[in-house]
Structures are given as C-alpha cells and as structure tokens.
Amino acid sequence: MTPVHIHINSKIYPTAQKPTIANLDLSLEAGEFICLVGASGCGKTTLLNIIAGLDTDYDGEISVGSQHTAPKIGYIFQNPRLLPWRTVRENIELVLDKQQSPELIAPLLEVMQLTEVQHAYPERLSLGMSRRVSIIRAFAVDPDVLLMDEPFVSLDAPTARQVRELLLKLWQQRPHTVLFVTHDLREAIALADRLVFLSAGPMNVICEITVPIARSERNNESTVEAFRQQLLNEYPAIKQLL
C-alpha cells in the first residue's frame, strides 16, 4: 500500500483557452479509497491519465510512495478493453510479469465469481462480467496505486451494485491505494473512505469529506441516502457537480 501526493500547477491542452486543471493539491494515505466526484467533462479522466503517466504534458509533480523506480499503476477504464481473440484467463495473464505465477489468477476469479467463464471469449460475456474481468486484470499486477475511471457507468442499478460489492470484497482482501472517479454521489458514499469534490473550468479541489458510515452499513440504501441528503444540505455547491 502506497501513499500518493498530487500537485498540478497547470494542465492546458494546446487548443484550449484556459487550463483544464489548475492549482490542484491532493494527498492519499496508503491503502485509502478515495472517490473523486465532479461533473462530466471537468477533467477527472485527464487527472487519472497524468497520474498513470499517460499524459506528461503538464506543470506539476506526482509522487507515489518513496520509490526510486517507476510505480506500478493499475488502471480500470470505462471501457473494459478486453482483447476479443483471447479468453478471460488469457486477458488477465497478459499483464503478469515473469515473476508472477498464473496460479494467482484462480482466487481472483473466484472472488469475482468468474471461475466458470474463465475460458470464454469476451463476446460471450455480459458488460458486468467484462467489467469484473478488467478489475481482476488491474489487481493482478499488484499495483502501488489503483485508478478507476467510472468503471460501472452504463450498468443497470442491480448489476452496478453487485459489481461494487465484489470490488469491495476484493479490495478488502487485497488492500491498495485507490482513486475512483464517479459523478454518482450514492456510489461514492458506498465505496469511499473520503470524498473529494472537484470543480470545473479549471478543475481543482472544492472540499474533502470523510465518510463516517461503517462499511458494514454501506449496503443500507436508506443510510447512504440520508448521508447524501446531509451533504447536499450542508454543501449546496455539490448539487452543481452531479
């Protein structure tokens, strides 16, 4: 488990008239599950791409732990991005390095309830199953930091809830520092240790709120909804982000 420190003075695209991100400071404790909440298009995916090293054209600094080598980053995109000509198991095996045994995949498949389809090709999977495969693939690299970009978007409510619960089960068994992007406040409350609300134009941190609900109570929809309403009443500006 690895702490992360993010400082971005400015991120501006060449054709843009103003920065997408400016004066953003954020720190994650080792093993913390953070949800970034902000309106669509505010720059959340850009931030994840910067942390992952996919976008290096910015002014700032990203620090992951105290390592002198490049950190391992697990990245779960909105699109599962599975290779259609490889089976579920083969898609996961692709990310393993030479020191990792393929045998570590079996318990991950079991936790995510995918053992029976491990030899199936992606075209045979539902979207929810494909998302679960992408989650396993990200955990399999044993990342220092796990980035998740609205991985449950477009799932129906029951399927999204099932996959969230499986994700939390896997994360509790294999704790990692997680940065999870969403614009769904209920989802954020159900998952996060801490909520970070982001503005747009340019993006920066509006406020950070610790979720006081015990994880054993997060499946109670009325409890989650009560806290959501409390947040909306105490921080009216949040409504504009959802």
Quick recap of the structure?
The protein is of the alpha/beta class and 242 residues long. 31% of the residues lie in helices and 22% in strands. The longest helix has 17 residues, at 157-173.
Descriptive labels:
single chain, 242 residues, alpha/beta, Rossmann fold, 6-stranded mixed β-sheet, 3-stranded antiparallel β-sheet, 9 strands, 31% helix, globular
Could you characterize what this model shows?
- The protein has helices at residues 44-52, 88-93, 105-111, 127-140, 157-173, 185-191, 221-234; strands at residues 4-11, 21-28, 33-37, 59-64, 73-76, 145-149, 177-182, 194-198, 205-210.
- With 242 residues, it is of the alpha/beta class.
- The protein has one domain (32-39, 70-195, 205-241): Rossmann fold (3-Layer(aba) Sandwich), CATH 3.40.50.300.
- Strands 5-6-7-3-8-9 form a 6-stranded mixed beta sheet, with helices on both faces. A 3-stranded antiparallel beta sheet has the order 2-1-4, with helices on one face.
- Helix 6 packs across helix 7 (221-234).
- The chain is globular and about 45 Å long.
- The model has no long low-confidence stretch (mean pLDDT 89).
Provide a count of the helices: 7
CATH superfamily heading: P-loop containing nucleotide triphosphate hydrolases
Shape: globular
Low-confidence stretches: none
- CATH fold naming: Rossmann fold
Total discrete domains? 1
Largest sheet: 6 strands, mixed
Strand content: 15-25%
List the helices and strands and how they pair.
Blueprint: E1 4-11, E2 21-28, E3 33-37, H1 44-52, E4 59-64, E5 73-76, H2 88-93, H3 105-111, H4 127-140, E6 145-149, H5 157-173, E7 177-182, H6 185-191, E8 194-198, E9 205-210, H7 221-234
Parallel strand pairs: 3-7, 3-8, 5-6, 6-7
Antiparallel strand pairs: 1-2, 1-4, 8-9
Helix pairs in contact: 4-5, 6-7
